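[Meeting: bench + compute handoff]

Bench side (C.D.) handed over the final construct sequence. Compute side (W.E.) agreed to return the predicted structure before the next meeting so the bench team could plan truncations. Sequence as handed over:
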Amino acid sequence: MSGNAYPAALRRVIKDISKWPGVGEKSAARMAMHLLRAPRAEVLELAQALLELKEKIQLCRRCYAFADQELCPTCADPGRRPGQLLVVAEPGDLLAIEKVGWYQGLYHVLGGLISPLEGIGPDDIRLRELLHRVMKEEVQEVILGLNPSLEGETTTTYLAQELRPLGIKVTRIAYGLPMGGEIKYADQQTLRESLNHRVET
């Protein structure tokens, strides 16, 4: 069946789903067909969940991870080690590291990486907030857990230069992550080793 043969409402859903990362038109068509055949209650439940996602999920006021309260579950956990701060680029990286279950400190989500080619500089990520936290929360170690890409390396170097004068230990994850890899897609063993074998910058 060609795309033009689909009814307008179905074409719209396929078009919208195909905008998602990693979803092509064929996959989008399969998903739309699934929704079309699914019971009405299941589709309504999904629609409600998507609305709640937009309405209730916000950024944690402390670390900028995803949260449905003022603080995310990690920042609200009194059992976490407050003297250790793991800096990541995106909330997805934090979630991947949390799945490993090894790291017990706190996080700081930058919301991106420095990328001069894309016009993203230090003022476009949460660097000021990081420096403020380090001084206010008496952090002893900052672990730079950024992707081993050109942007990740640029950001790691810049952050290390900004953090060193504060007299704290600055380390970076290194072991097992290939150049150009992404933290959120790494397997749990690789992430565990990367944290375990971190080196000072």
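W.E. noted at the follow-up: The CA atoms of residues 12 and 169 lie 52 Å apart. C.D. will use this when planning the next construct.
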